[in-house]
Amino acid sequence: MPRPLPLFTKALTDSWRSTVAWAVGLTGAIMLYLPLYPSIGGSAQMQQMIDALPQGMTKALNYDQIATGPGYTQATLFGLIGFLLMSMASVGWGAAAVGGDEESGLLELTLAHSVTRVQVVLERALAILVRIVLLAALVFVLVLVLNGPAKLEIDVGHLFGAVLLFAALALLSGTAALFAGALTGRKVYGVAAGAAVAVLGYVFNAVGRQSPDVEWLLNLSPYHWAYGNSPVSNGADWGAVTGLLCISAALVALGTLALQRRDVGV
Amino acid sequence: MTQAIVVEGLRKKFGQREVLHGLDFAVEPGTVFGVIGPNGAGKTTTMRCLLDIIRPSAGSISVLGQDPRRAGTELRKRIGYLPGELYLENRTTGRRMLEHFAAISGPVDQRHVNDLADRLHLDLDRQTRKLSKGNKQKLGLLQAFMHKPELLVLDEPTSGLDPLVQQVFHAMVREAVDGGATVFLSSHVLSEVQLAADAVAILRDGNIVTVSTVEALRTAAVRQLRFNSTGTEAHDVGALLARVPGVANVAVRELPADGHAAGTVEATATLSGHIQPLVQELARLHLTDLVLEEPDLEEAVLTLYTGGDASSIGNAPGASRQPEGAHRA
Questions:
Q1: Chains A and B: how many Cβ contacts under 8 Å?
Q2: How distant, in Å, are the alpha carbons of A24, A87, A182, A264, B69 from that of A95?
Q3: What pLDDT, on the 0 to 100 scale, is given for residue B300?
Protein backbone atom coordinates (compact mmCIF):
# COMPACT_ATOMS: atom_id res chain seq x y z
CA MET A 1 0.00 0.00 0.00
CA PRO A 2 1.36 3.46 -0.79
CA ARG A 3 2.05 5.25 2.46
CA PRO A 4 2.25 9.02 2.72
CA LEU A 5 5.75 10.50 2.95
CA PRO A 6 7.67 7.20 2.78
CA LEU A 7 11.09 8.88 2.75
CA PHE A 8 10.20 11.09 5.69
CA THR A 9 9.03 8.21 7.86
CA LYS A 10 12.04 6.14 6.88
CA ALA A 11 14.45 8.98 7.69
CA LEU A 12 12.82 9.38 11.10
CA THR A 13 12.72 5.71 12.01
CA ASP A 14 16.25 5.10 10.71
CA SER A 15 17.63 7.82 12.96
CA TRP A 16 15.87 7.06 16.20
CA ARG A 17 19.09 5.84 17.75
CA SER A 18 20.98 9.00 17.06
CA THR A 19 17.99 11.11 18.10
CA VAL A 20 17.88 9.32 21.43
CA ALA A 21 21.63 9.67 21.82
CA TRP A 22 21.52 13.43 21.31
CA ALA A 23 18.53 13.67 23.63
CA VAL A 24 20.52 11.87 26.32
CA GLY A 25 23.43 14.23 25.74
CA LEU A 26 21.28 17.32 26.01
CA THR A 27 19.54 15.99 29.11
CA GLY A 28 22.90 15.29 30.72
CA ALA A 29 24.18 18.77 29.92
CA ILE A 30 21.06 20.43 31.29
CA MET A 31 21.10 18.31 34.43
CA LEU A 32 24.75 19.16 35.02
CA TYR A 33 24.62 22.87 34.35
CA LEU A 34 21.33 24.28 35.52
CA PRO A 35 21.16 22.87 39.08
CA LEU A 36 24.55 24.48 39.68
CA TYR A 37 23.19 27.99 39.15
CA PRO A 38 22.53 28.81 42.82
CA SER A 39 26.14 27.99 43.70
CA ILE A 40 27.82 29.49 40.63
CA GLY A 41 25.98 32.21 38.80
CA GLY A 42 23.97 33.45 41.75
CA SER A 43 26.79 33.60 44.25
CA ALA A 44 28.59 36.83 45.04
CA GLN A 45 31.93 35.05 45.15
CA MET A 46 31.50 33.75 41.63
CA GLN A 47 30.56 37.22 40.44
CA GLN A 48 33.76 38.59 41.94
CA MET A 49 35.73 35.93 40.16
CA ILE A 50 34.10 36.73 36.87
CA ASP A 51 34.70 40.43 37.41
CA ALA A 52 38.36 39.58 37.84
CA LEU A 53 38.54 37.79 34.47
CA PRO A 54 39.62 39.76 31.42
CA GLN A 55 36.61 41.52 30.00
CA GLY A 56 37.22 40.14 26.52
CA MET A 57 36.98 36.62 27.80
CA THR A 58 33.76 37.09 29.71
CA LYS A 59 32.23 38.71 26.67
CA ALA A 60 33.39 35.93 24.37
CA LEU A 61 31.84 33.32 26.65
CA ASN A 62 28.76 35.41 27.39
CA TYR A 63 29.68 35.17 31.05
CA ASP A 64 28.95 38.86 31.54
CA GLN A 65 25.33 37.88 32.04
CA ILE A 66 25.52 34.83 34.26
CA ALA A 67 24.64 36.65 37.45
CA THR A 68 20.95 36.13 36.73
CA GLY A 69 19.12 32.84 36.23
CA PRO A 70 18.02 33.59 32.68
CA GLY A 71 21.44 35.00 31.81
CA TYR A 72 23.11 31.92 33.23
CA THR A 73 20.84 29.62 31.25
CA GLN A 74 21.39 31.69 28.14
CA ALA A 75 25.17 31.68 28.48
CA THR A 76 25.77 28.10 29.53
CA LEU A 77 23.01 26.06 27.94
CA PHE A 78 21.67 27.89 24.89
CA GLY A 79 24.88 29.77 24.17
CA LEU A 80 27.43 27.04 24.67
CA ILE A 81 26.90 23.39 25.46
CA GLY A 82 23.37 23.09 24.09
CA PHE A 83 24.33 25.05 21.01
CA LEU A 84 27.30 22.78 20.48
CA LEU A 85 25.37 19.52 20.87
CA MET A 86 22.41 20.66 18.82
CA SER A 87 24.60 21.99 16.00
CA MET A 88 26.53 18.74 15.84
CA ALA A 89 23.35 16.70 15.68
CA SER A 90 21.83 18.91 13.04
CA VAL A 91 24.95 19.11 10.87
CA GLY A 92 25.36 15.36 11.04
CA TRP A 93 21.80 14.76 9.93
CA GLY A 94 21.94 17.44 7.25
CA ALA A 95 25.17 16.15 5.74
CA ALA A 96 23.95 12.56 5.77
CA ALA A 97 20.52 13.33 4.31
CA VAL A 98 21.57 13.65 0.68
CA GLY A 99 25.35 13.94 0.38
CA GLY A 100 26.06 11.04 2.71
CA ASP A 101 23.33 8.95 1.16
CA GLU A 102 24.69 9.56 -2.30
CA GLU A 103 28.27 8.91 -1.28
CA SER A 104 27.37 5.58 0.25
CA GLY A 105 25.73 4.59 -3.04
CA LEU A 106 22.24 4.30 -1.59
CA LEU A 107 20.70 7.33 -3.26
CA GLU A 108 21.00 5.83 -6.75
CA LEU A 109 18.66 2.98 -5.90
CA THR A 110 16.19 5.27 -4.12
CA LEU A 111 16.05 7.59 -7.11
CA ALA A 112 15.47 4.65 -9.43
CA HIS A 113 12.21 4.08 -7.62
CA SER A 114 9.11 6.16 -7.91
CA VAL A 115 10.29 9.32 -6.17
CA THR A 116 11.32 12.75 -7.38
CA ARG A 117 14.54 14.35 -6.31
CA VAL A 118 12.61 17.31 -4.91
CA GLN A 119 10.62 14.89 -2.80
CA VAL A 120 13.82 13.26 -1.50
CA VAL A 121 15.26 16.59 -0.35
CA LEU A 122 12.00 17.93 1.08
CA GLU A 123 11.01 14.81 2.99
CA ARG A 124 14.46 14.40 4.46
CA ALA A 125 14.63 18.11 5.37
CA LEU A 126 11.28 17.70 7.08
CA ALA A 127 12.66 14.75 9.02
CA ILE A 128 15.56 16.90 10.22
CA LEU A 129 13.14 19.63 11.25
CA VAL A 130 11.02 17.19 13.23
CA ARG A 131 14.03 15.77 15.03
CA ILE A 132 15.25 19.26 15.94
CA VAL A 133 11.79 20.21 17.17
CA LEU A 134 11.72 17.07 19.32
CA LEU A 135 15.08 17.87 20.88
CA ALA A 136 14.13 21.52 21.37
CA ALA A 137 10.87 20.48 23.02
CA LEU A 138 12.85 18.26 25.36
CA VAL A 139 15.12 21.19 26.25
CA PHE A 140 12.08 23.39 26.83
CA VAL A 141 10.49 20.88 29.18
CA LEU A 142 13.68 20.16 31.11
CA VAL A 143 14.48 23.84 31.66
CA LEU A 144 10.91 24.38 32.76
CA VAL A 145 11.16 21.51 35.20
CA LEU A 146 14.41 22.86 36.68
CA ASN A 147 13.22 26.46 36.67
CA GLY A 148 11.91 26.31 40.22
CA PRO A 149 14.36 23.94 41.92
CA ALA A 150 17.39 25.71 40.42
CA LYS A 151 15.96 29.16 41.23
CA LEU A 152 16.40 30.30 37.65
CA GLU A 153 13.32 32.57 37.53
CA ILE A 154 12.94 32.28 33.78
CA ASP A 155 9.80 33.68 32.19
CA VAL A 156 8.05 30.85 30.33
CA GLY A 157 7.27 33.01 27.32
CA HIS A 158 10.90 34.12 27.08
CA LEU A 159 12.02 30.53 27.42
CA PHE A 160 9.72 29.52 24.60
CA GLY A 161 11.16 32.23 22.37
CA ALA A 162 14.70 31.25 23.29
CA VAL A 163 14.05 27.58 22.54
CA LEU A 164 12.58 28.57 19.21
CA LEU A 165 15.73 30.51 18.34
CA PHE A 166 17.83 27.63 19.66
CA ALA A 167 16.04 25.30 17.26
CA ALA A 168 16.12 27.74 14.35
CA LEU A 169 19.85 28.27 14.80
CA ALA A 170 20.51 24.53 14.76
CA LEU A 171 18.24 24.13 11.77
CA LEU A 172 20.25 26.72 9.89
CA SER A 173 23.52 24.80 10.20
CA GLY A 174 21.67 21.57 9.41
CA THR A 175 20.10 22.95 6.24
CA ALA A 176 23.46 24.45 5.24
CA ALA A 177 24.91 20.94 5.54
CA LEU A 178 21.97 19.50 3.60
CA PHE A 179 22.40 22.05 0.84
CA ALA A 180 26.15 21.53 0.48
CA GLY A 181 25.63 17.77 0.49
CA ALA A 182 22.93 18.01 -2.18
CA LEU A 183 25.12 20.31 -4.25
CA THR A 184 28.26 18.18 -4.14
CA GLY A 185 27.09 14.67 -3.30
CA ARG A 186 29.78 14.48 -0.63
CA LYS A 187 29.15 14.19 3.06
CA VAL A 188 32.37 15.93 4.03
CA TYR A 189 31.37 19.13 2.21
CA GLY A 190 28.05 19.04 3.98
CA VAL A 191 29.74 18.72 7.36
CA ALA A 192 32.17 21.50 6.43
CA ALA A 193 29.40 23.88 5.38
CA GLY A 194 27.23 23.15 8.40
CA ALA A 195 30.13 23.40 10.81
CA ALA A 196 31.25 26.64 9.17
CA VAL A 197 27.86 28.23 9.76
CA ALA A 198 27.87 27.17 13.40
CA VAL A 199 31.51 27.82 14.23
CA LEU A 200 31.93 31.05 12.27
CA GLY A 201 28.66 32.29 13.71
CA TYR A 202 29.99 31.64 17.17
CA VAL A 203 33.43 33.11 16.48
CA PHE A 204 32.07 36.22 14.76
CA ASN A 205 29.86 36.81 17.77
CA ALA A 206 32.69 36.31 20.25
CA VAL A 207 35.09 38.55 18.33
CA GLY A 208 32.48 41.09 17.34
CA ARG A 209 31.60 41.79 20.94
CA GLN A 210 35.19 42.70 21.82
CA SER A 211 35.31 46.22 20.44
CA PRO A 212 33.38 48.68 18.27
CA ASP A 213 36.03 48.31 15.55
CA VAL A 214 34.98 44.73 14.83
CA GLU A 215 31.32 45.12 15.71
CA TRP A 216 30.37 44.67 12.07
CA LEU A 217 31.21 40.99 12.45
CA LEU A 218 28.09 40.62 14.56
CA ASN A 219 25.97 41.27 11.48
CA LEU A 220 27.44 38.18 9.85
CA SER A 221 26.77 35.93 12.81
CA PRO A 222 23.57 33.87 12.87
CA TYR A 223 24.50 33.15 16.46
CA HIS A 224 24.33 36.86 17.21
CA TRP A 225 21.06 37.31 15.29
CA ALA A 226 19.54 34.70 17.52
CA TYR A 227 21.14 35.45 20.86
CA GLY A 228 22.26 39.09 20.55
CA ASN A 229 19.51 40.34 22.82
CA SER A 230 19.73 37.46 25.28
CA PRO A 231 16.33 35.92 24.55
CA VAL A 232 16.07 33.88 27.77
CA SER A 233 16.20 37.19 29.67
CA ASN A 234 14.41 39.44 27.23
CA GLY A 235 12.25 37.28 24.95
CA ALA A 236 12.78 36.34 21.33
CA ASP A 237 13.52 38.75 18.56
CA TRP A 238 10.79 37.53 16.23
CA GLY A 239 12.50 39.07 13.27
CA ALA A 240 15.46 36.81 13.99
CA VAL A 241 13.22 33.75 14.27
CA THR A 242 11.60 34.53 10.93
CA GLY A 243 14.91 35.39 9.32
CA LEU A 244 16.62 32.19 10.41
CA LEU A 245 13.72 30.03 9.32
CA CYS A 246 13.53 31.79 5.95
CA ILE A 247 17.23 31.23 5.28
CA SER A 248 16.84 27.56 6.20
CA ALA A 249 13.86 27.24 3.87
CA ALA A 250 15.87 28.93 1.12
CA LEU A 251 18.78 26.53 1.67
CA VAL A 252 16.44 23.56 1.37
CA ALA A 253 14.95 25.02 -1.80
CA LEU A 254 18.44 25.54 -3.22
CA GLY A 255 19.24 21.98 -2.24
CA THR A 256 16.34 20.66 -4.32
CA LEU A 257 17.45 22.78 -7.27
CA ALA A 258 21.05 21.60 -6.94
CA LEU A 259 20.13 17.94 -6.80
CA GLN A 260 17.58 18.36 -9.56
CA ARG A 261 20.19 19.61 -11.96
CA ARG A 262 23.02 17.18 -11.69
CA ASP A 263 24.14 13.61 -12.19
CA VAL A 264 23.87 11.40 -9.13
CA GLY A 265 26.52 9.00 -7.97
CA VAL A 266 29.33 9.89 -10.37
CA MET B 1 3.43 -1.30 -30.56
CA THR B 2 6.06 1.28 -29.63
CA GLN B 3 9.57 0.20 -28.81
CA ALA B 4 10.40 -0.25 -25.15
CA ILE B 5 13.61 1.71 -25.39
CA VAL B 6 14.81 4.00 -28.15
CA VAL B 7 18.19 5.65 -27.76
CA GLU B 8 19.42 8.05 -30.42
CA GLY B 9 22.75 9.80 -30.55
CA LEU B 10 23.32 9.36 -26.81
CA ARG B 11 26.43 11.16 -25.65
CA LYS B 12 27.67 11.64 -22.14
CA LYS B 13 30.54 13.78 -20.99
CA PHE B 14 31.95 13.86 -17.50
CA GLY B 15 33.89 17.08 -17.52
CA GLN B 16 36.11 16.93 -20.60
CA ARG B 17 35.97 13.16 -20.87
CA GLU B 18 33.30 11.80 -23.16
CA VAL B 19 32.35 8.26 -22.15
CA LEU B 20 29.47 7.67 -24.55
CA HIS B 21 30.11 8.75 -28.11
CA GLY B 22 26.69 8.71 -29.67
CA LEU B 23 24.85 5.47 -29.01
CA ASP B 24 21.93 4.38 -31.16
CA PHE B 25 19.86 1.35 -30.39
CA ALA B 26 16.29 0.27 -29.86
CA VAL B 27 14.75 -2.50 -27.84
CA GLU B 28 11.54 -4.15 -28.96
CA PRO B 29 8.94 -4.79 -26.26
CA GLY B 30 8.75 -8.30 -24.89
CA THR B 31 12.37 -9.14 -25.69
CA VAL B 32 15.57 -9.54 -23.72
CA PHE B 33 18.26 -7.16 -24.85
CA GLY B 34 21.78 -7.70 -23.57
CA VAL B 35 24.62 -5.23 -23.55
CA ILE B 36 28.05 -6.71 -23.27
CA GLY B 37 31.41 -5.11 -23.21
CA PRO B 38 34.49 -4.82 -21.09
CA ASN B 39 34.44 -2.85 -17.86
CA GLY B 40 34.42 0.87 -18.51
CA ALA B 41 32.73 0.51 -21.89
CA GLY B 42 29.75 2.62 -20.83
CA LYS B 43 27.16 -0.01 -19.91
CA THR B 44 26.42 1.38 -16.48
CA THR B 45 26.38 4.96 -17.73
CA THR B 46 23.86 4.02 -20.41
CA MET B 47 21.61 2.34 -17.88
CA ARG B 48 21.81 5.25 -15.47
CA CYS B 49 20.73 7.54 -18.30
CA LEU B 50 17.64 5.36 -18.85
CA LEU B 51 16.71 5.83 -15.18
CA ASP B 52 17.41 9.59 -15.18
CA ILE B 53 20.06 9.09 -12.52
CA ILE B 54 22.51 10.82 -14.80
CA ARG B 55 21.61 13.14 -17.65
CA PRO B 56 22.78 12.78 -21.25
CA SER B 57 24.99 15.49 -22.70
CA ALA B 58 23.34 15.03 -26.08
CA GLY B 59 20.91 12.74 -27.83
CA SER B 60 17.48 11.52 -26.98
CA ILE B 61 16.11 8.66 -24.91
CA SER B 62 12.65 7.21 -24.91
CA VAL B 63 11.74 4.64 -22.28
CA LEU B 64 8.30 3.02 -22.55
CA GLY B 65 7.40 5.88 -24.87
CA GLN B 66 8.46 8.62 -22.49
CA ASP B 67 11.49 10.83 -21.93
CA PRO B 68 12.89 9.73 -18.55
CA ARG B 69 14.14 13.26 -17.93
CA ARG B 70 10.59 14.61 -17.96
CA ALA B 71 8.36 11.65 -17.25
CA GLY B 72 8.67 11.70 -13.48
CA THR B 73 7.66 9.12 -10.94
CA GLU B 74 4.97 7.26 -12.87
CA LEU B 75 7.50 6.06 -15.43
CA ARG B 76 9.94 4.77 -12.82
CA LYS B 77 7.11 2.87 -11.18
CA ARG B 78 6.96 0.84 -14.40
CA ILE B 79 10.70 0.09 -14.30
CA GLY B 80 12.67 -2.29 -12.11
CA TYR B 81 16.33 -1.37 -11.74
CA LEU B 82 19.31 -3.25 -10.39
CA PRO B 83 22.39 -1.02 -10.05
CA GLY B 84 25.74 -2.37 -11.18
CA GLU B 85 27.23 -1.68 -7.81
CA LEU B 86 24.61 -2.50 -5.28
CA TYR B 87 24.89 -0.84 -1.90
CA LEU B 88 22.48 -1.73 0.85
CA GLU B 89 21.88 -0.10 4.16
CA ASN B 90 23.51 -1.88 7.02
CA ARG B 91 21.04 -1.56 9.83
CA THR B 92 17.98 -3.06 8.27
CA THR B 93 16.63 -6.38 7.10
CA GLY B 94 15.80 -7.40 3.59
CA ARG B 95 12.13 -7.34 4.44
CA ARG B 96 12.17 -3.82 5.79
CA MET B 97 14.15 -2.62 2.80
CA LEU B 98 11.67 -4.19 0.41
CA GLU B 99 8.73 -2.75 2.36
CA HIS B 100 10.25 0.70 2.01
CA PHE B 101 10.65 0.39 -1.75
CA ALA B 102 7.19 -1.15 -2.01
CA ALA B 103 5.81 1.90 -0.21
CA ILE B 104 7.40 4.07 -2.91
CA SER B 105 6.97 2.01 -6.05
CA GLY B 106 4.10 -0.28 -5.09
CA PRO B 107 1.62 -1.79 -5.03
CA VAL B 108 3.47 -5.04 -4.45
CA ASP B 109 1.93 -8.44 -3.98
CA GLN B 110 3.49 -9.76 -0.78
CA ARG B 111 2.98 -13.36 -1.90
CA HIS B 112 5.02 -12.61 -5.01
CA VAL B 113 7.85 -11.26 -2.82
CA ASN B 114 7.81 -14.33 -0.58
CA ASP B 115 7.66 -16.60 -3.60
CA LEU B 116 10.69 -14.95 -5.21
CA ALA B 117 12.59 -15.02 -1.91
CA ASP B 118 11.89 -18.74 -1.60
CA ARG B 119 13.04 -19.45 -5.10
CA LEU B 120 16.23 -17.46 -4.60
CA HIS B 121 16.79 -19.08 -1.18
CA LEU B 122 16.99 -15.67 0.44
CA ASP B 123 16.22 -15.11 4.12
CA LEU B 124 14.47 -11.75 4.25
CA ASP B 125 14.74 -11.40 8.01
CA ARG B 126 18.51 -11.42 8.22
CA GLN B 127 20.36 -8.17 8.79
CA THR B 128 21.58 -6.88 5.45
CA ARG B 129 25.10 -6.29 6.74
CA LYS B 130 25.40 -10.00 7.43
CA LEU B 131 24.44 -11.01 3.89
CA SER B 132 27.06 -12.34 1.51
CA LYS B 133 27.63 -10.61 -1.80
CA GLY B 134 25.46 -13.17 -3.56
CA ASN B 135 22.62 -12.76 -1.08
CA LYS B 136 22.80 -8.98 -1.38
CA GLN B 137 22.55 -9.40 -5.13
CA LYS B 138 19.44 -11.55 -4.65
CA LEU B 139 17.91 -8.79 -2.59
CA GLY B 140 18.78 -6.34 -5.35
CA LEU B 141 17.07 -8.60 -7.89
CA LEU B 142 14.03 -8.93 -5.66
CA GLN B 143 13.51 -5.19 -5.35
CA ALA B 144 13.77 -4.91 -9.12
CA PHE B 145 11.32 -7.73 -9.88
CA MET B 146 8.85 -7.45 -7.01
CA HIS B 147 6.44 -4.90 -8.46
CA LYS B 148 6.27 -6.75 -11.78
CA PRO B 149 7.54 -3.82 -13.82
CA GLU B 150 7.05 -3.51 -17.56
CA LEU B 151 10.77 -2.88 -18.05
CA LEU B 152 13.65 -4.40 -16.15
CA VAL B 153 17.01 -2.65 -16.33
CA LEU B 154 19.57 -4.96 -14.78
CA ASP B 155 23.23 -4.04 -14.56
CA GLU B 156 25.37 -7.17 -14.25
CA PRO B 157 22.49 -9.13 -12.72
CA THR B 158 24.30 -12.44 -12.27
CA SER B 159 27.38 -11.00 -10.64
CA GLY B 160 28.08 -12.86 -7.41
CA LEU B 161 25.38 -15.48 -7.98
CA ASP B 162 26.27 -19.14 -7.94
CA PRO B 163 25.24 -21.23 -10.98
CA LEU B 164 22.06 -22.62 -9.42
CA VAL B 165 20.78 -19.18 -8.52
CA GLN B 166 21.74 -17.97 -11.98
CA GLN B 167 19.34 -20.57 -13.34
CA VAL B 168 16.61 -19.20 -11.09
CA PHE B 169 17.43 -15.74 -12.35
CA HIS B 170 17.18 -16.84 -15.98
CA ALA B 171 13.82 -18.43 -15.20
CA MET B 172 12.65 -15.18 -13.62
CA VAL B 173 13.70 -13.29 -16.73
CA ARG B 174 11.83 -15.71 -18.98
CA GLU B 175 8.70 -15.44 -16.85
CA ALA B 176 8.86 -11.67 -16.91
CA VAL B 177 9.18 -11.73 -20.71
CA ASP B 178 6.38 -14.25 -21.01
CA GLY B 179 4.29 -11.82 -18.99
CA GLY B 180 4.99 -9.12 -21.55
CA ALA B 181 7.90 -7.37 -19.86
CA THR B 182 11.04 -6.15 -21.59
CA VAL B 183 14.44 -6.86 -20.10
CA PHE B 184 17.57 -4.79 -20.66
CA LEU B 185 20.59 -6.36 -19.04
CA SER B 186 24.32 -6.02 -19.14
CA SER B 187 27.26 -8.28 -18.58
CA HIS B 188 30.93 -8.41 -19.32
CA VAL B 189 30.63 -12.14 -19.97
CA LEU B 190 29.12 -13.32 -23.24
CA SER B 191 28.09 -16.69 -21.88
CA GLU B 192 25.80 -15.02 -19.34
CA VAL B 193 24.05 -12.92 -21.91
CA GLN B 194 23.69 -15.62 -24.51
CA LEU B 195 21.54 -17.69 -22.18
CA ALA B 196 19.04 -14.93 -21.64
CA ALA B 197 19.15 -12.44 -24.45
CA ASP B 198 17.35 -12.33 -27.79
CA ALA B 199 19.58 -9.57 -29.01
CA VAL B 200 22.96 -8.28 -27.99
CA ALA B 201 24.67 -4.94 -28.33
CA ILE B 202 28.40 -4.89 -27.94
CA LEU B 203 29.68 -1.76 -26.33
CA ARG B 204 33.28 -0.76 -26.40
CA ASP B 205 34.82 2.52 -25.31
CA GLY B 206 31.47 4.27 -25.45
CA ASN B 207 30.54 3.07 -28.93
CA ILE B 208 28.17 0.36 -30.00
CA VAL B 209 30.26 -2.00 -32.06
CA THR B 210 27.36 -4.07 -33.25
CA VAL B 211 23.82 -5.01 -32.48
CA SER B 212 23.14 -8.59 -33.32
CA THR B 213 21.46 -11.79 -32.32
CA VAL B 214 23.31 -14.06 -29.94
CA GLU B 215 23.43 -16.72 -32.65
CA ALA B 216 25.07 -14.41 -35.13
CA LEU B 217 27.49 -13.28 -32.50
CA ARG B 218 28.50 -16.79 -31.59
CA THR B 219 29.05 -17.57 -35.23
CA ALA B 220 31.23 -14.54 -35.66
CA ALA B 221 33.13 -15.10 -32.47
CA VAL B 222 36.56 -16.62 -32.61
CA ARG B 223 37.23 -19.91 -30.89
CA GLN B 224 40.53 -21.41 -30.00
CA LEU B 225 41.04 -24.87 -31.51
CA ARG B 226 43.65 -27.39 -30.39
CA PHE B 227 43.94 -31.09 -31.18
CA ASN B 228 46.36 -33.96 -31.38
CA SER B 229 46.15 -36.66 -34.01
CA THR B 230 48.18 -39.69 -34.93
CA GLY B 231 48.95 -41.40 -38.14
CA THR B 232 48.99 -38.26 -40.27
CA GLU B 233 51.86 -36.12 -41.53
CA ALA B 234 52.00 -32.56 -40.20
CA HIS B 235 51.70 -30.98 -43.65
CA ASP B 236 48.62 -33.10 -44.40
CA VAL B 237 46.97 -31.82 -41.23
CA GLY B 238 47.86 -28.27 -42.27
CA ALA B 239 46.37 -28.80 -45.70
CA LEU B 240 43.22 -30.27 -44.20
CA LEU B 241 42.75 -27.29 -41.90
CA ALA B 242 43.36 -24.88 -44.75
CA ARG B 243 40.31 -26.30 -46.55
CA VAL B 244 37.97 -25.37 -43.66
CA PRO B 245 36.35 -21.94 -43.99
CA GLY B 246 36.97 -19.67 -41.01
CA VAL B 247 40.12 -21.38 -39.82
CA ALA B 248 43.15 -19.16 -39.34
CA ASN B 249 46.38 -18.89 -37.38
CA VAL B 250 47.20 -22.51 -38.06
CA ALA B 251 50.25 -23.93 -36.32
CA VAL B 252 51.10 -27.60 -36.73
CA ARG B 253 54.08 -29.48 -35.29
CA GLU B 254 55.09 -33.07 -34.76
CA LEU B 255 55.47 -33.93 -31.14
CA PRO B 256 58.63 -35.70 -29.98
CA ALA B 257 58.15 -39.43 -29.66
CA ASP B 258 58.81 -39.63 -25.93
CA GLY B 259 55.52 -39.74 -24.02
CA HIS B 260 53.45 -39.66 -27.17
CA ALA B 261 52.47 -42.25 -29.68
CA ALA B 262 54.81 -42.18 -32.65
CA GLY B 263 53.84 -39.68 -35.29
CA THR B 264 51.65 -37.51 -33.08
CA VAL B 265 50.84 -34.13 -34.58
CA GLU B 266 49.68 -31.20 -32.48
CA ALA B 267 47.72 -28.47 -34.22
CA THR B 268 46.40 -25.14 -32.96
CA ALA B 269 44.23 -22.71 -34.87
CA THR B 270 41.39 -20.28 -34.50
CA LEU B 271 37.93 -20.79 -35.84
CA SER B 272 35.31 -18.23 -36.69
CA GLY B 273 32.06 -19.15 -38.32
CA HIS B 274 30.31 -22.46 -38.36
CA ILE B 275 31.61 -25.53 -36.62
CA GLN B 276 30.11 -28.16 -38.86
CA PRO B 277 32.64 -28.00 -41.76
CA LEU B 278 35.48 -28.26 -39.26
CA VAL B 279 33.99 -31.29 -37.58
CA GLN B 280 33.54 -32.99 -40.93
CA GLU B 281 37.19 -32.49 -41.82
CA LEU B 282 38.41 -33.51 -38.40
CA ALA B 283 36.44 -36.74 -38.67
CA ARG B 284 39.00 -37.89 -41.24
CA LEU B 285 41.76 -37.75 -38.62
CA HIS B 286 42.57 -40.09 -35.81
CA LEU B 287 42.21 -37.66 -32.91
CA THR B 288 43.71 -38.32 -29.51
CA ASP B 289 42.77 -34.97 -28.03
CA LEU B 290 40.44 -32.16 -29.04
CA VAL B 291 39.68 -28.81 -27.41
CA LEU B 292 37.33 -26.29 -29.01
CA GLU B 293 36.97 -23.46 -26.56
CA GLU B 294 33.97 -21.28 -25.81
CA PRO B 295 34.03 -18.19 -27.98
CA ASP B 296 35.96 -15.51 -26.22
CA LEU B 297 34.06 -12.25 -25.86
CA GLU B 298 37.12 -10.09 -25.94
CA GLU B 299 38.21 -11.65 -29.20
CA ALA B 300 34.71 -11.52 -30.60
CA VAL B 301 34.54 -7.85 -29.84
CA LEU B 302 37.98 -7.23 -31.22
CA THR B 303 37.16 -9.06 -34.43
CA LEU B 304 33.99 -7.14 -34.97
CA TYR B 305 35.56 -3.91 -33.90
CA THR B 306 38.74 -3.90 -35.92
CA GLY B 307 37.37 -5.93 -38.82
CA GLY B 308 34.71 -3.35 -39.62
CA ASP B 309 32.73 -6.38 -40.63
CA ALA B 310 29.68 -5.72 -38.51
CA SER B 311 27.38 -5.42 -41.50
CA SER B 312 27.89 -9.07 -42.37
CA ILE B 313 26.10 -10.01 -39.18
CA GLY B 314 22.38 -9.97 -39.53
CA ASN B 315 20.47 -7.53 -37.43
CA ALA B 316 18.41 -9.20 -34.78
CA PRO B 317 14.66 -9.36 -35.19
CA GLY B 318 14.41 -7.95 -31.67
CA ALA B 319 16.82 -5.14 -32.30
CA SER B 320 16.98 -2.47 -34.92
CA ARG B 321 20.00 -0.35 -35.43
CA GLN B 322 20.14 3.20 -36.65
CA PRO B 323 22.51 3.22 -39.59
CA GLU B 324 24.60 6.22 -38.58
CA GLY B 325 25.66 4.65 -35.31
CA ALA B 326 26.79 1.34 -36.65
CA HIS B 327 30.28 1.91 -37.85
CA ARG B 328 31.42 4.76 -35.70
CA ALA B 329 34.83 3.89 -34.37
A1: 73
A2: 22, 12, 8, 16, 26
A3: 62
Which pLDDT score, from 0 to 100, does residue B18 have?
92
Q: Give the three-class secondary structure for B152.
A: strand
Which of B104, B109, B142 would best serve as a mutation to test chain A binding (most A beta carbons within 10 A)? B104
* pLDDT level of residue B320 (50, 70, 90 thresholds): very low
Measured at the CA of A194, the angle between CA A191 and CA A199, to 5 degrees, comes to: 110
Q: Which residues of A touch B72 (CB under 8 A)?
A: 116
Cα nearest neighbour of A114 on chain B? B73
Indicate the length of chain A as a whole number. 266
* Confidence check: pLDDT of B299 > 70: no
CA distance B44 to chain A (A): 11
State the Cα–Cα distance between residues B63 and B88, nearest whole angstrom: 26
Q: Look at residue A124 and tell me whether its pLDDT is greater than 90.
A: yes
Residues of B in contact with A104 (CB under 8 A): 87
Confidence of residue A44 (pLDDT cuts 50, 70, 90): confident
Q: Read off the pTM.
A: 0.83
Nearest Cα to Cα of residue B189 among B47, B324, B36? B36
Structural domain boundaries of chain A? 6-260
